[in-house]
Automatic annotation (TrEMBL):
Gene name of the encoded protein: LOC726962
GO biological process: endoplasmic reticulum to Golgi vesicle-mediated transport
Similarity field: Belongs to the TRAPP small subunits family. BET5 subfamily.
Keywords attached to this entry: Endoplasmic reticulum, ER-Golgi transport, Golgi apparatus, Transport
GO cellular component: endoplasmic reticulum; Golgi apparatus; TRAPP complex
Record note on quaternary structure: Part of the multisubunit transport protein particle (TRAPP) complex. The heterodimer TRAPPC6B-TRAPPC3 interacts with TRAPPC1 likely providing a core for TRAPP complex formation.
Protein name (database record): Trafficking protein particle complex subunit
Main subcellular location of this protein, as a coarse class: endoplasmic reticulum
PANTHER family: TRAFFICKING PROTEIN PARTICLE COMPLEX SUBUNIT, TRAFFICKING PROTEIN PARTICLE COMPLEX SUBUNIT 1
Subcellular location: Endoplasmic reticulum; Golgi apparatus, cis-Golgi network
Pfam annotation, one family: Sybindin
Keyword Zinc among UniProt keywords: no
Length: 145
């Protein structure tokens, strides 16, 4: 199982945080352009899912899978969006994203008076804790494919 990269977006689409571990293919565009494309795609998929869902779309969009990777999505009630790209073997990444929100984001961003909400996260402690959480997860495996 491999975790490739992580995006955290604000309610308004501002890229608050980005990290990558085992990303082999670079996009060839700037991180800002990539973030805008990712947020736009998420916005479109969420809208599409809510419109065509035959059932109550309370949960809405959770993930999508391609032949090469899976994109896992978790949105908080306040509108924060957590996006994790993994290999296709990885399952239950939603639990890891919820843990990231509860144990790292709330503790090291929300409760940190030096962090401004809805601004890119600069805290080195937050970055360290994200890295620790992901590397101790059974979903994380550092390998070259």
């Amino acid at each position: 199982m491999t975790i490739h990269n992580l995006y955290i977006f604000s309610k308004n689409g501002i890229l608050l945080y980005y990290a990558e571990w085992n990303r082999l293919n670079k996009s060839g565009i700037t991180k800002a352009e990539e973030a805008k494309l990712m947020y736009g795609m998420l916005f479109s998929i969420k809208s599409f899912v809510s419109k065509i869902s035959p059932l109550d779309p309370k949960e809405g969009f959770l993930y999508y899978k391609t032949s090469k990777y899976t994109l896992h999505y978790f949105e908080t009630p306040s509108g924060l969006k957590f996006v994790l790209n993994t290999d296709n073997v990885t399952q239950n990444a939603r639990e890891l994203l919820q843990q990231l929100y509860r144990e790292v984001y709330l503790e090291y961003v929300v409760k940190n008076p030096l962090c401004q909400l809805n601004e890119p996260i600069q805290s080195e402690l937050f970055k360290l804790k994200v890295d620790e959480l992901f590397k101790k997860s059974p979903l994380f495996l550092s390998r070259s494919i």
